[in-house]
Amino acid sequence: MALRLPERVPGLPVLALVLLLVPLFLGNEFHLDIATQIALIAATVVGLNLLVGYGGQVSLGHAAFFGMGAYASAILTGTYGWTSIPALLCGALLVAVLAWTLGRPILRLKGHYLSMATLGMGIIIAIVINNEGWLTGGPDGLAVEPLTVMGAELSIFDHYSLLGLEVSGALLWYGLAALLLLLAVWIAQNLVDSPIGRALRAVHGSEVAARVVGVDTSHYKLLIFVISAVYASVMGSFYAHYTGFITPQVASFEHSIELITMVVLGGMASTYGVILGAVLLMLLPQLLTDFQDYEMMMFGLILMLTMIFMPKGLLPTLSEAVRRLRPRPASAPASGQE
C-alpha cells in the first residue's frame, strides 16, 4: 500500500503545537533564552515577508524600524516614566508615521534603486541612534525597564505564581514570545488571503498589469510598507524589554542583512518558510562559535548559495520535493480494454 501524504498541513495549529512542546526539550534557561529571541525575531521577519515576499519590494534597512521601536520603549519607560504598553504603542505610531512619510517617495523607485534608497534610510536612522548619546546612550547602549503587565513587572530573573504553580520569568517570557509569533502569523495569513493580499500578489507579478486592471499599486505598496514597519517596531519593543539592554546594533545594517537573509533562506512568500529561516540563522552563531569573526561572511555565503541552488527558498523547495514523492492516481483504463 502506497504512502499517502496529506495535501495540505494546517500550519497554524502545527506551529502552536511545536511552540508548546519546545520547552520540554530545552536543557536549561540559556536554551530558553535563545528560543525566546528566535520567536521575537521570527515574528519580525513574518512582517518583512509581507513586504518582500508578497509585495515584491526590497528593504535593506528594516532593522531601523526594529531599532526605533526598541529605543522608543527604552526612552519612554526609562527617561519619562511611561508604562510599557503605552510606550510600545507610541513607538509603533511613530514608526508608522515615519514609514508612511518616507515610503511615499521611496516606493516610487524600482529594482536596485529601491534597494539603495531603503539602505540609505536604514543607515541614516542607525547613525542618528548611534550619535545622539544624550537621548539614546550612544554606542554604550541603553538600559531598558522590565515589561509591565497589569501592574506587575515581568523579569526573566524572577519567579511567579501562575495557577498555583511557581513559574520562572524566563518561561513566561517564552510563552509571551510564542503568543506574539502566533498572532503575527495569524494576522499575516489573514492579510494574504484578503483583497490586500491579492492586490500585493498582482503588484509582485506585474505592476503594470496590476495598474491596467485597476489596482492602486502605490496605495498597496505604501500600506504593506507601513504594516511591515509596525511589525518590526512592536517586536523591537518587546525585544528591548526582554533583553533589558540595547545598543545601536539592533538598528544596524548588519541586522537588516540578517533579517532579509532569513526571508530569502526560508522562502519568500512563505510565512512558515521565513520562520524556518529565522530558526536556522539564529541557531547558526551558536553552532559556529569558533567562527564569530566570519558571521557576516557566512550570511553572505548562505544568501548566495540559496539564490543559486534554492531560488524559491528552503521550505518551498522541500515542499515541492515532497509533492513529487506523492503517488499519482492511477489513470483509468482506455475504453474497450479489460
Structural summary, described in words:
The chain has 338 residues and is mainly α. It has one domain. It contains 14 helices and six strands. The strands form three sheets. It has a two-stranded antiparallel sheet with strand order 1-6. A two-stranded antiparallel sheet has the order 2-3. It has a two-stranded antiparallel ribbon with strand order 4-5. A hairpin with a 2-residue loop joins β2 and β3. α2 packs across α11, α3 runs antiparallel to α4 and α8 crosses α10. The chain is globular, with a radius of gyration of 22 Å. The N terminus is likely disordered.
Question: How are the SSEs placed, and which strands pair?
Answer:
Elements (H helix, E strand, L loop, with lengths): L10 H11 L7 H26 L8 H16 L5 H23 L4 H21 L1 H4 L5 E2 L3 E3 L2 E3 L4 E4 L2 E4 H24 L2 H11 L1 H6 L4 H27 L1 E2 L6 H14 L4 H17 L7 H15 L4 H12 L13
Antiparallel strand pairs: 1-6, 2-3, 4-5
Helix pairs in contact: 1-7, 2-7, 2-10, 2-11, 2-12, 3-4, 3-5, 3-10, 4-10, 7-10, 8-10, 11-12, 11-13
